[in-house]
Structure formats: structure tokens, C-alpha cells
Automatic annotation (TrEMBL):
Gene giving rise to this polypeptide: LOC114434946
Pfam families cross-referenced by the UniProt entry: V-set
Record's keyword annotation contains Protein biosynthesis: no
Highest classification ranks of the organism: Eukaryota, Metazoa, Chordata, Craniata, Vertebrata
Single GO MF annotation: transmembrane signaling receptor activity
Protein name: CMRF35-like molecule 3
Subcellular compartments: Membrane
Domain of life: Eukaryota
Organism: Parambassis ranga (Indian glassy fish)
Signal peptide coordinates: 1-23
Length: 332
């Protein structure tokens, strides 16, 4: 007890003199309800020394666990002497577990401390979700963007919206690349695409695109898929393949092929049929008018010919008739 009091006084003194940490601050993040691991290294000469994890001023009551205990409450510790690194696990994370911690290595005089910052995030994703639709028996392609620094990192997709278990429950990854229903392709630049074939209504629901990060939490984007069943009115249509880039927690990209609505498609067919019928009717009317005009011209030509013939006969009669109408002239 006296030893811890002395150690506590030394800790406060070192804090005031800015000599507490002998290494850079370690940042770790975890999801609420899950676990987080904190690893701290030490020099060759401290393999046999006791190590511990503490909070606040690292007084006796602030020590959470030591290497002599292995496990205590929600904390566990393991000292790997081969790699000279001891690792603490904090289970069942709650918001109150967020904050500052200290990795401690005992030694004569002042212990060695390394500052640790723990961040707790809700085990859900995301602030924005892309909603996409397709039909039973069709397929859908989901494009997931990522940063250039993650080109060589593992990519995957899972069902649900819990980031903490997504990798363990992934339906396909960039390592496996293809399953019976899922195919993952990576352009190795800025996005990977997951294609889901032979869709059924059971495939409806939430999906998460995941990009594994070597440090910190993985990056996710969320998609909500709705698979509809064909009705009798739409049974003659072929399901459309929909390509969607789902929304990430940081930015949203959307490049999709047009989705044909069944009602609009039917209306378009009716309009097209009516238009063709109108064109046909106008063509028939045009032919009828041309034939009628031709007949009228012929009739008018016949009437003119008859009138000219009648006029000629009348003139001839007037010329001949005086010879027979004057009997006195004939008698002489």
C-alpha cells in the first residue's frame, strides 16, 4: 500500500514535469458492447517486471489489472515476453469506458507510463443509407467506394448493420472473391463492386460494405436492398439489373442504370400504338383524297369535251339551214 502511495506521488510529480510518457500516445477505438485491445511494448530489461493498466492518476484504486492477475472483472492482460509486448483487453465496452488510460511498467523509482486514448462508437451504421430495388430472379450490383490508401486492404460485404461483427459474418471478401450468389471485384483504384444474382425476397434487407483498416476501425457504407415479386401484369418484363454505389458515413456516390417503372412502360406502349394507328389513318385519308381529286379532274375534262362538240354541231346547223328556208329563191 505504501509502495502505491509513493508511486502515486511520483506519477503526479512526473505529470507536472511532463515526464510521464516515454512513447507516443496510443489511440484505440471500439464499438459499444464489443471488445477493444490495447498493446504496449517495453524494453529488453523489463521482461520480468510487473505490467499494468490504470486510469486517472494511476493511484492504488486506479489500477485496473496487473500481469499478476491475468483477468479481473471486464479486463484481461497477457504479457508476450518474446515480442516484449503486453496486451490488455477491455470487454463489453460502454460509453463510460471512453477516455484516457495508462500502460505501466514497474521499475525502481519512477515507473514507465504510456498514454492510451480509448474511443467508443455505437455499434450501428450509418448516418446515410442507399435504398435500391430489384426483382425476384434478377441481379443487383453494389459499388463501394474507398480511399486510395486502402487499395491493398481487405474488402468485404455482410448482411445487417453491426460493424463489430461484419467481417466475421461477411458473405464474400476480396480474398474469396466469389460464392454461389455473391461476386466481388476490385478495380484496385477507388471502388469494389459486389454483384448479387438469383435474387429472392429473402435477400431483402440491410448490407454493409467494409474496408479493413490496419489501425483503427474499419470503414463502412450502408445499403438497403428491396427485392420485389413480379405480378401478372409485369411477368412479360425482364428484371432490370441495378448498379448502385451506396452511401458511406463520409460521402455518398450514386451511379445507377435507369430503373423502368412498370406503369410508365405500359403507358409508353399505349402511346406508341396510338401514334402508329394515327399515322396509318392519315396515310389512308391521303390516298383517298388523291384518288378523289383524280376522278374529279377526269369528269371535268369529259364535260368540257361534250360542250365543245355541241357548240360545233350548232354552228354547222346554222350555216346549212338558210338554203332550205327560202322557197322563193329556189323557185326562180
Amino acid at each position: 500500500m505504501k509502495m502505491w502511495i509513493l508511486q502515486h506521488l511520483l506519477f503526479i510529480l512526473c505529470t507536472a514535469l511532463s515526464c510521464v510518457t516515454d512513447a507516443a500516445v496510443i489511440h484505440v477505438s471500439g464499438y459499444e458492447g464489443s471488445d477493444v485491445r490495447v498493446s504496449c511494448s517495453y524494453d529488453q530489461g523489463y521482461k520480468t517486471q510487473e505490467k499494468y493498466l490504470c486510469r486517472n492518476d494511476c493511484g492504488y484504486s486506479d489500477v485496473l489489472i496487473t500481469t499478476s492477475q491475468t483477468k479481473k472483472n471486464k479486463y484481461s492482460i497477457y504479457d508476450d515476453k518474446r515480442t516484449r509486448k503486453f496486451t490488455m483487453t477491455i470487454s463489453d465496452l460502454q460509453h463510460k469506458d471512453a477516455g484516457k488510460y495508462w500502460c505501466g511498467v514497474t521499475r525502481t523509482g519512477k515507473d514507465i507510463y504510456t498514454e492510451v486514448r480509448v474511443e467508443i462508437k455505437p455499434d450501428s451504421c450509418c448516418h446515410s443509407v442507399s435504398k435500391v430495388q430489384s426483382y425476384d430472379g434478377g441481379s443487383v450490383s453494389i459499388s463501394c467506394p474507398y480511399e486510395s490508401v486502402d487499395q491493398n486492404n481487405l474488402k468485404y460485404i455482410c448482411r445487417g448493420n453491426q460493424p463489430s461483427t461484419c467481417l466475421q459474418q461477411a458473405v464474400v471478401t476480396s480474398d474469396s472473391k466469389q460464392t454461389t450468389q455473391f461476386t466481388l471485384t476490385d478495380d484496385r483504384k477507388s471502388q469494389f463492386t459486389v454483384t448479387i444474382t438469383n435474387l429472392t425476397q429473402k435477400d431483402s434487407g440491410s448490407y454493409l460494405c467494409g474496408v479493413h483498416r490496419n489501425t483503427g476501425l474499419d470503414d463502412f457504407s450502408a445499403v438497403e436492398l428491396e427485392v420485389n415479386v413480379f405480378s401478372q401484369q409485369t411477368s412479360t418484363m425482364t428484371p432490370n439489373n441495378i448498379t448502385v454505389e451506396p452511401v458511406t458515413t463520409q460521402s455518398t456516390y450514386m451511379t445507377s442504370k435507369p430503373f423502368r417503372d412498370v406503369t410508365l412502360f405500359t403507358i409508353f406502349n399505349y402511346i406508341r400504338a396510338a401514334f402508329l394507328a394515327l399515322l396509318t389513318l392519315l396515310f389512308i385519308m391521303f390516298i383517298f383524297v388523291m384518288v378523289y381529286r383524280n376522278k374529279v379532274r377526269k369528269l371535268q375534262g369529259s364535260e368540257v369535251s361534250v360542250m365543245m362538240l355541241s357548240s360545233t354541231e350548232a354552228v354547222e346547223q346554222r350555216t346549212i339551214s338558210p338554203t332550205y328556208e327560202n322557197p322563193e329563191y329556189t323557185a326562180c
